[in-house]
Specification:
It comes from Cellvibrio zantedeschiae. The protein contains three helices and six strands. By secondary structure, it is of the alpha+beta class. The strands form two sheets. It has a three-stranded antiparallel beta sheet with strand order 1-2-3, with no helix packed on it. Strands 4-5-6 form a three-stranded mixed beta sheet, with helices on one face. It folds into two domains: 38 residues, N-terminal domain of TfIIb, CATH 2.20.25; 99 residues, GMP Synthetase, Chain A, domain 3, CATH 3.30.300. The longest helix is centred in the middle third of the chain and has 23 residues.
Length: 139
C-alpha cells in the first residue's frame, strides 16, 4: 500500500492513494488553514469507520442478510495537550434491512472489532479504548 501527501498552500495538503484517489486535508484558520478539507485526525477516524463498516457489510452479505443501509457513527475523545492522540472511540452501527437477524449483526460487529479491522486492532494496540454498539432498523 502506498500514498503520497503533497503540500498545497498554508495548511492544505493533497493526499493521493496508491489506487489513484485524492483527498484534500486542511487545518483550521487559527493554524494557517482555510477549512477547505478534513483534518488529518478526522481522516484517521473516518478510516476506522470505513474499515470496520467494510467488514460488517462483507460479513452480513456472506450471511445472506438483506441489508439496505449501514451507518457507523463515531465519537472520539483525545488527550489534552500536544500530542493529542485518541484515547477513546465509540463506534455505533445502525444497520437497516429486511428481517435482519440480531445474532448476525452482533457477530459481524464483534468479528470486525476482534479479528478483521486492521485499523481498530492497530489503534487498540496503541492504547485507544474502542467500544462498539449496534442497532437494527427494519427497512
Amino acid at each position: 500500500m502506498q500514498a503520497v501527501v503533497k503540500w498545497v498552500d498554508g495548511a492544505q495538503f493533497l493526499a493521493e492513494s496508491g489506487s489513484g484517489h485524492a483527498v484534500l486535508m486542511d487545518g483550521p484558520p487559527d493554524h494557517g488553514g482555510r477549512n477547505t478539507g478534513v483534518r488529518p485526525m478526522e481522516m484517521l477516524l473516518m478510516g476506522l469507520g470505513g474499515c470496520s463498516s467494510f467488514d460488517v457489510m462483507s460479513i452480513l452479505t456472506k450471511a445472506r442478510q438483506a441489508v439496505t443501509d449501514c451507518r457507523c457513527e463515531l465519537q472520539a475523545e483525545r488527550a489534552e495537550g500536544v500530542p493529542s492522540p485518541f484515547t477513546k472511540i465509540h463506534m455505533h452501527f445502525i444497520v437497516t434491512g429486511k428481517e435482519l437477524k440480531e445474532a448476525q449483526v452482533k457477530r459481524a460487529v464483534e468479528l470486525s472489532a476482534t479479528k478483521y479491522c486492521s485499523a481498530s486492532i492497530m489503534l487498540e494496540a496503541g492504547g485507544v479504548e474502542i467500544t462498539h454498539a449496534y442497532e437494527i432498523r427494519e427497512a
